[in-house]
Amino acid sequence: AASGGAGGPEAGPGAEPVPERGPESAAGAAQPPEPSVLPLLVCPLSKRPLRYEAATQELVNEELGIAYPVVDGIPTMLPEAARKIPARP
Amino acid sequence: ARGLAANKETHFGFQTVSEEEKGEKVYQVFENVAKKYDIMNDSMSLGIHRVWKDVLLYKMNPSPGILLLDVAGGTGDIAFRFIDYVRSVRERQLRRKLKHHQNLSWQEIADSYQAEAVKPLGDSQVVVCDINKEMLKVGRQKAQHLGYSEGLSWVVGNAEELPFGDEKFDVYTIAFGIRNVTHIDLALQEAYRVLKPGGRFLCLEFSQVNNPLLARLYDLYSFQIIPVLGEIIAGDWKSYQYLVESIRRFPPQEEFKAMIEDAGFLKVDYLNLTSGIVAIHSGFKL
């Protein structure tokens, strides 16, 4: 099921609404991030490690309950772009 | 009495704005100029910015295996130079190795070339981080056109609040970016945090001209020619007006050196280029 997607309405003013399918995005639909960068990334707020969720193309900070979008293969590591994820029961 | 945290003021070029506004206004400037950024750099500096960036790489002198974080690296100029530099160092290393082994079989020679093909950068990596996704998009397109892909990644992030773990990088560069940051001290602290011990901070930025005659010509050129070029080439006078004003606002060489030292860096020094129109500041995390 298409859940959220990169930068849905909850994501705040900075994020794009839909991954671009124009000439700029080489792969057409959502590009995966460059794998070599993932181990280097942490949450900019807490500096704690993140979990990459391929299904939603997001980098998740479980502790703070927020997720950063990967837009067109580019991790968008700005607090304004993060969305709150509902706490698991 | 002044409000405590309420909207601290700062400068946006010669205007006074709140700190919050500055970030937004700077974002707008680069969003507007992104597509014409490279052309404008060439026009305004008559191509000299390429030499400045070459000198930055020469000072860095990276060897294969180095991990570079290029902050405010938008359109990729530093990243591509880094890749070229490391690639050529690696080629030379492999060639020197071959020369020393006189009695190689054809298979061994072929294997050497194979090694070079598989790891042309020898594990070097550059991460380009910029707060502005439009600038990064331009950079990524350029990379695709120029054939750069290996060892290169792009991240949207804020220099004041980097999304990287502690002690990850060997070198941190910021070229013509730090004067646009609202809290320069925070950016310097973050630079210190993400560098490995022994890592190097390098900043290429506009600075203060040390020659009075040249200073006058430079002022004339900056305020009379550059915004006009901005209007003609990019259709954006105001952004380039901001650019030249922001250059005047940035601390001169010695003051910036002190700020870098305040962040904890040691052996801080600077190299003036083109009579101080730009300077390369360098410091080490020791």
From TrEMBL, chain A:
<dbReference type="InterPro" id="IPR005651">
    <property type="entry name" value="Trm112-like"/>
</dbReference>
<dbReference type="Pfam" id="PF03966">
    <property type="entry name" value="Trm112p"/>
</dbReference>
<protein>
    <recommendedName>
        <fullName>Protein preY, mitochondrial</fullName>
    </recommendedName>
</protein>
<feature type="compositionally biased region" description="Gly residues">
    <location>
        <begin position="1"/>
        <end position="11"/>
    </location>
</feature>
<feature type="region of interest" description="Disordered">
    <location>
        <begin position="1"/>
        <end position="37"/>
    </location>
</feature>
<comment type="similarity">
    <text>Belongs to the PREY family.</text>
</comment>
TrEMBL record, chain B:
<keyword id="KW-0489">Methyltransferase</keyword>
<dbReference type="Pfam" id="PF01209">
    <property type="entry name" value="Ubie_methyltran"/>
</dbReference>
<protein>
    <submittedName>
        <fullName>COQ5 protein</fullName>
    </submittedName>
</protein>
<dbReference type="InterPro" id="IPR004033">
    <property type="entry name" value="UbiE/COQ5_MeTrFase"/>
</dbReference>
<dbReference type="GO" id="GO:0008425">
    <property type="term" value="F:2-methoxy-6-polyprenyl-1,4-benzoquinol methyltransferase activity"/>
</dbReference>
<keyword id="KW-0831">Ubiquinone biosynthesis</keyword>
<keyword id="KW-0808">Transferase</keyword>
<comment type="function">
    <text>Methyltransferase required for the conversion of 2-decaprenyl-6-methoxy-1,4-benzoquinol (DDMQH2) to 2-decaprenyl-3-methyl-6-methoxy-1,4-benzoquinol (DMQH2).</text>
</comment>
<keyword id="KW-0949">S-adenosyl-L-methionine</keyword>
<comment type="subunit">
    <text>Component of a multi-subunit COQ enzyme complex, composed of at least COQ3, COQ4, COQ5, COQ6, COQ7 and COQ9. Interacts with PYURF; the interaction is direct, stabilizes COQ5 protein and associates PYURF with COQ enzyme complex.</text>
</comment>
<dbReference type="InterPro" id="IPR023576">
    <property type="entry name" value="UbiE/COQ5_MeTrFase_CS"/>
</dbReference>
<dbReference type="GO" id="GO:0032259">
    <property type="term" value="P:methylation"/>
</dbReference>
<dbReference type="InterPro" id="IPR029063">
    <property type="entry name" value="SAM-dependent_MTases_sf"/>
</dbReference>
